[in-house]
Structures are given as structure tokens and as C-alpha cells.
Amino acid sequence: MARVKAEIFQIVGQNKKFEESGIDNLPYMQAVVKEALRLHPPLPFLFPRRAMHDTNFMGYDISEDTQVLVNVWAIGRDPESWDDPLDFKPERFLNSKSDFKRTMF
């Protein structure tokens, strides 16, 4: 929290009005938000999808019309995808190209 506050005071100033356009100048705050969303997604599952045709995904056969749920909560805690997945480490996103404002998830 101290590091985020220091970044905001350094970039925005203490008595200035914060503008949305200034978010691009706050990389550590962006990393904190991304890390919070990784550990605590707003929804644990993405909206259900239905397979349009028979397919094979990562070795699993999925039949046409099968409802598929993506467990975002589990993905955010997967030790194969994240180092120390249960620890809150915003630094892991500082050099990341992930961007929640566009189409990247």
C-alpha cells in the first residue's frame, strides 16, 4: 500500500485531481489491480460456453453441445502457471504485457 501511495503522490501529486488518463503513468498501481483480480476474480467462472462441434482440447474430447465452464479462480492459483500462486506479488505484472482495458485476459 505504501508503494502505491508513493507512486500516486509522485505522479499525480497530493492535492491534484486524478484523471483516468493518468492511469498509464502508474505501473505499480496497475500491477496491484491485476494481482488482486488474479487472486480474487469478480466471478469464479467465466460465462458458460457451448461447444459448436466435436473437438479435442488439450487431450480432452468435447462433444458438440457440451456446456464448458472456465474456472478463473483455479487458473489464478495454478502452481504450473504462477510462481508462489497464493502470495500477493504485484511485481509479477510489472514487466507483463497483459492489459485488462482491451481484449487480453
UniProtKB/TrEMBL annotation:
Alphabetical list of Pfam families matching this protein: p450
Top-rank taxon: Eukaryota
Record keywords, A-Z: Heme, Iron, Metal-binding, Monooxygenase, Oxidoreductase
Gene3D superfamilies per the UniProt record, alphabetical: Cytochrome P450
SUPFAM superfamilies xref list: Cytochrome P450
UniProt-listed InterPro entries: Cyt_P450 (IPR001128), Cyt_P450_E_grp-I (IPR002401), Cyt_P450_sf (IPR036396)
Alphabetized GO MF terms: heme binding; iron ion binding; monooxygenase activity; oxidoreductase activity, acting on paired donors, with incorporation or reduction of molecular oxygen
Stated family: Belongs to the cytochrome P450 family.
The name this protein goes by in its record: Cytochrome P450
Organism, scientific name: Solanum bulbocastanum (Wild potato)
